[in-house]
Design a protein that fits this description.
Strand content: 35-45%
Radius of gyration: 14 Å
Shape: globular
Number of helices: 0
CATH class of one domain: Mainly Beta
Order of helices and strands: EEEEEEEEEE
Strand order of the largest sheet: 5-6-7-8
Number of strands: 10
Largest sheet: 4 strands, antiparallel
Structural class: mainly beta
Length: 127
């Protein structure tokens, strides 16, 4: 049985099901970046974990189209927000909405994932 994910769809796509990592590889309350083959090609994806819940977003700031991490896979996290290391844009971790900074009101692009009962995180249909 799947747990709650960033997105869900009944149809299977050609890239769905690809394992990204294991839940226990992301610290609870933390984040990591993984490279994933998406429909648009290979992209860096941010995985943000809160307990058994994981949100996934493209690792691209809508303000500058640059990565959000300050070093590969290292993110600035504070009070349930994700902060772009380049210009300080601040995003809600739960929905990717920019709440402060130069791209206020814009969203990070969500990546559909699912967390399996064995703890593996996979791309979901629509990725």
């Amino acid at each position: 049985m799947d747990t709650v994910t960033s997105a869900d769809s009944p149809s299977e796509g050609p890239l769905s099901g690809r394992a990204l990592c294991r839940l226990d590889e992301i610290p609870d309350g933390g984040a990591t970046a993984v490279d994933a083959m998406l429909a648009d090609g290979e992209e860096s994806v941010i995985l943000l974990r809160h307990g058994e819940q994981v949100q996934a977003y493209l690792n691209i700031c809508p303000h500058t189209a640059r990565r959000l991490d300050y070093a590969p896979g290292k993110f600035l996290l504070k009070n349930n927000t994700l902060i772009c290391a380049v210009h300080g844009a601040t995003f809600n971790q739960t929905d990717g909405l920019c709440v402060a900074g130069p791209c206020r009101g814009e969203h990070l692009r969500m990546v559909p994932i699912r967390v399996e009962t064995d703890g593996t995180i996979h791309l979901a249909p629509g990725a």
